[in-house]
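go over this:
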Amino acid sequence: MSDVFKIKDELKLDYAEAYVVPQPFKDLYDIKTAFSRGTIFNDLYRPYEKKKYGR
C-alpha cells in the first residue's frame, strides 16, 4: 500500500455537517407559480438579472 493511503487512514476525518435554518411556511406561492419559479417560498425567489460590467 502506498504512503498516501496510510496517511488517509490515520487521519480519520469526519464528514461535513450543514446547518440549515428552518423556513417558516408563510407567504407561499400557488403550485403553478412555485413550479415556474423553482420554490414555494416567496422570500427565497431571486430571479437572475443580467448585469453589465465594464465600460
Summary: The chain has a mean pLDDT of 81. The CA atoms of residues 33 and 40 lie 8 Å apart.
